């Protein structure tokens, strides 16, 4: 595949469903390309033929190489990568390992995700740590000047969402990380909506911990996730869910723990799913991360422009830099009804409700938005079809 422009014919040939429907839900759960599907099925078959242990043994080298593949994708080294079964699991195991005590402060942003907010609040309740929200700037992204004002040495963690679940906003990660590090705070980046659509590189961004999912923009299997941990911060973390893979029982009363990111993994997992995720990362690298970002950006821009021109439709995306999540509302029509009417026309979108990003949605007075997230395998013509379908959804 070309390094600059995606070979639309080739990627659509690997994504047969993209031909039949206008699939605009890669922010929810994307269409995996054929090689990803085949990697999983082949392994499941092999497990049925020889048993799970022998089947795993046969793929040992590939599984080991997978750490290098994800490391390449995420601008990290293989010992900084851990696999998991979801972005949430990755985020939780990282968050749980950050020491927090009474009076410590944790900063979040206005687009914090519900799946992080619930454990944050629970942990605050348990430890006496305080959660505070950094305001957004006029563009809707985290206000880095306001963050600097809030930072002091009591801030132990900054929880930053790269791209929120409810819109095209891209937060300025490197600036946040640099500011947080001046007071010694750790930075945990929720990159769930960015990996697979944007370049996300651990060391370039300067974050300490980074969580991501397989099923969204990376086009991997459901039930997969990844955690990247900057080697330099591992000694400051205390992983709480550890087993005989993250550690070793060295005598009846002693144990040791691994000294790499795999200390965050548990022994048991779906190897078919893991192989599928590795294949998805390889596929993204073959298409090219910069190419993907450019193509997704192009489709999203086209979609936003088409929607903005429709009477009664409001595009709701914030941010100076915008990416592949396109959110909108249609006057007088509930988001769920827009979704249902589009489904009838073969256009797949989803909705995002206030409960997922409560601070941001409440601030903007929004209950629900329609979310359309075109990947590179969606043709420009299909984007126009979707706009046409939305123009009919208000009637
Ligand atoms: C989807 C999402 C998650 C959770 O991902 P899972 O794979 O469901 O664990 C976390 N953060 C954001 C911003 C998301 O959109």
From TrEMBL:
One of its GO terms (molecular function) is transaminase activity. Its EC number is 4.4.-.-. Residues 22-385 form the Aminotransferase class V domain. The modification N6-(pyridoxal phosphate)lysine is found at residue 216. Its cofactor is pyridoxal 5'-phosphate. It catalyses: S-(hercyn-2-yl)-L-cysteine S-oxide + AH2 + H(+) = ergothioneine + pyruvate + A + NH4(+). Probably catalyzes the conversion of hercynylcysteine sulfoxide to ergothioneine. Belongs to the class-V pyridoxal-phosphate-dependent aminotransferase family. EgtE subfamily. This is Probable hercynylcysteine sulfoxide lyase. It comes from Umezawaea endophytica. The gene is egtE.
